């Protein structure tokens, strides 16, 4: 019986630390860009307490492939301009928050690009994290 209770308790602790995995914008406020750095104030997993500002450099996780923003690459900021954050045109579930930019393609022409940050950015106990 003790092993079962201990296992359930450990599972609850792991889940509590992951309460806001993915979909960071649902549990963060004051979300903004500073260059290629995403900044926000996010809720902690327990008690709904707001942590101080957290940040993550998107340039370490997003790249540019022929004018498209893609995950698991780097240095999109070297090839993109006019960066901004925007929600979808229509309400969506799960919520989306896009990084939008004009990025240079292989023909050196700037084209519109976007990537949904909620796909890979999480709020883990008040801190912005990248999900691989």
Brief synopsis:
Residues 1-21 have low confidence and may be disordered.
Provide a descriptive summary of the structure in words:
There is one protein chain. The chain has 132 residues and is mainly beta. The protein has one domain: Roll (HIV-inactivating Protein, Cyanovirin-n), CATH 2.30.60. It has 1 helix and 10 strands. A 3-stranded antiparallel β-sheet has the order 1-2-3, with no helix packed on it. Strands 6-7-8 form a 3-stranded antiparallel β-sheet, with no helix packed on it. Strand 4 and strand 5 form a beta hairpin. The N terminus is likely disordered.
Spatial shape: elongated
Strand percentage? 35-45%
Mean of residue pLDDT? Answer: 85
Largest sheet: 3 strands, antiparallel
Structural domain tally:
1
Structure summary, number of beta strands:
10
Q: Write the element-wise H/E pattern from the N-terminal end onward.
A: HEEEEEEEEEE
- Within CATH, the superfamily carries the name Cyanovirin-N
Cα-to-Cα separation, first versus last residue: 36 Å
Which CATH architecture? Roll
State the low-pLDDT regions, or none: 1-21
Determine and state the CATH class.
Mainly Beta
Please count the helical segments.
1
**What is the radius of gyration computed over CA atoms, rounded to a whole number of angstroms?**
17 Å
Q: Helix proportion of residues, in percent?
A: 10-25%
Kindly report the CATH topology.
Answer: HIV-inactivating Protein, Cyanovirin-n
Which class best fits the helix and strand makeup? mainly beta
Strand order of the largest sheet: 1-2-3
């Amino acid at each position: 019986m003790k092993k079962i209770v201990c296992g359930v308790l450990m599972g609850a602790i792991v889940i509590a630390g992951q309460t806001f995995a993915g979909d960071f914008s649902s549990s963060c406020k004051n979300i903004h860009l500073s260059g290629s750095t995403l900044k926000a104030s996010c809720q902690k997993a327990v008690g709904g307490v707001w942590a101080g500002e957290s940040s993550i450099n998107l340039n370490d996780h997003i790249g540019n492939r022929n004018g498209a923003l893609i995950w698991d690459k780097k240095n999109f900021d070297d090839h993109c301009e006019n960066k901004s954050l925007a929600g979808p045109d229509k309400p969506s579930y799960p919520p989306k928050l896009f990084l939008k930019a004009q990025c240079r393609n292989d023909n050196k022409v700037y084209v519109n690009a976007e990537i949904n940050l909620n796909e890979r950015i999480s709020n883990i106990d008040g801190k912005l994290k990248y999900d691989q």
